[in-house]
Structure formats: structure tokens, C-alpha cells
């Protein structure tokens, strides 16, 4: 091969290499231009400045939904024994039957009616609430667990204490509310609790079934409320002991944050009671992980929990707009996917059947009424 031919091959190779490098540089520059364009059109704070609302359908007015749900809850009361049916179960939206009555839901409904009264100012509604308070208080004094009507396995004293702080109730009704709280603990009657406190046998108050994890968490908040209400440090000690147990269970089993909303609330309640920022830090971690979850994958109960937790943050921790936005986003998803305008109630998201749960509808009243 002649020297001139070798030279031509080298030149051709260099030209080809130059073209390849040039193409790579052009592609890189174009990518940078596109990235700059994309980034210049994205507003990172938009999520916290305006609500991201699903637009599947036109949503009814808030007041209309509030009043409809309130009336539906009234219709779920069995007048024969003043208990509430657990749910309305439907194979479709027409073929429905009532589930059995449930001792667990009455106090949640009472609290939701109180929330509705604060919105409506209807004195007739307030008088009915007062009548129910007296009735529930007297029934709570029955010693037989099976005859006592109200045995909640959810927030109980937390609801009642919130009501008792309102000046709309005089001392007589405040005492009745306290009576319901201390007599109707799902796990412990008043005498049992006092015996456990006196004997320092706190290990006896833990539920044995680990599947009842959510109840662990709601109990923490209840005991914090009892600590405030009864001015007894032993109740705070119990709440903190429950919290340690629940936190260890959560970490050991690597639970999803969407299954731990009530542990977030419990941690916030302990922070507000003790000002220990360890509780606030743990709550923030749970809440941030929860909000990072794909909300399209959450069911109505999980979205309700996110809505309530965000409201608690907004009311008690910080007026940061992100809590307001996340709460309203959750609520809008619930309305779009779960509100039945004909029945005036919220149902599960399962397309094959519909469950209109009484307690969940009662809980959603708080999110609806506090929507700003």
C-alpha cells in the first residue's frame, strides 16, 4: 500500500470521527435545550399553590353534600335501639340491604352531627344532640358489656373531649360526655382501668391480635385526650407505652404509610401534649411518606385518613398551604369516585359492589365542613 493511500485512509477516518463527535455534540445541545424548555415551564410550587382536582365530573356544592350526608346518617339509625347500621351494602346502586347494627359507630356519628351543627347553627339539631348525649351517658353506666350500647373500637374520648371543650355545652352535658368516655372504653371498663393503673400492670392492656394495629393507634389518641380531660399523668404514661409498642410493630413489619395514618395522628397528639419533637419528627416522616403514595391507588378509607390527617396538621401544627391542598385534593378524589348524589352518601371504590359505611361517612363530614 502506497503512502498516499495510507494518508487518504487516515484522513477519511479522522473526518468520520469528527462527524461522529459533531453529531454527539449536536444531540447533547438539543437535549439541553429541551430540558431547559421543560424546566422553564414547570412550576415546582404549583402543587402547593392550587389544588390538583380530578375532573371526571362536576362536583355538587359543598353545602349540598354536607346536608345530604348528614341526612343519610340520620336514616342509618335504628330507632328500636338507637344503634346505627354499620353500612348499606349494594351489589349495584339499586340492589341494597342494610348491614347489622354496630356498637362501634354511634359516637363517630354523634361527633359528626356536632360538626354539622357548628356549620348550620340549627338549635333543633343541637337539642337532639344533647338528648342523645344524656341517653348515651345513662346507657354507658350499665355494667353488662353486652347491654351497653356504645363500645367504640375507634377514636372515642378524642371525639367527646373535642365536644366538651365547646361552650355550647354547659357543665351538665360536659359531665355526661366525660361519663361516656370513661365508661365506654372498648378495651377496658373504668374499674378495670383503675385496677391496672394501681397495680402497674400495663402489659395487660395491649391487644393480643396484631391485625388490630389501627386500634392500637386510635387508642393512643384516646388516652392522650383522657390525660388532658382527667388531668391524670397515668393516662399519658399509657399513651406513650402504647405508642412505643405500635411504633415498634410498624417498623418491624415495614408497613405501608397508607396503613399508618392513625399512628401519625397519635404521634401528633403526643407531641402536642408533651412538646417532645421526637414525636413530631416521626409524624412528619409518616405523613411525608403517605403523601408520596400514588393517590390513584388509595381506597376511600385511606383517602379519608389522609384528608383528616392533613386537616389536623393544618389546624394544630402549621398553616402551611400544602396541608390545605393535600386535604382538598384527597377530598375531591373521594367526591369524584365515591359520592352517590342520589343516596346522599359516600361509597367504596369497588366497581363490582358498593359499601356505604356509616363511620366513614361520619368522618368525611369533618373534611367537608372544614373545606376552605
Automatic annotation (TrEMBL):
GO biological process, one term: carbohydrate metabolic process
Highest taxon of source: Bacteria
Transmembrane segments: 6-26
Keywords attached to this entry: Membrane, Transmembrane, Transmembrane helix
InterPro entries, A to Z: 6-hairpin_glycosidase_sf
Protein name listed in UniProt: Uncharacterized protein
Gene source species: Candidatus Roizmanbacteria bacterium CG_4_8_14_3_um_filter_36_10
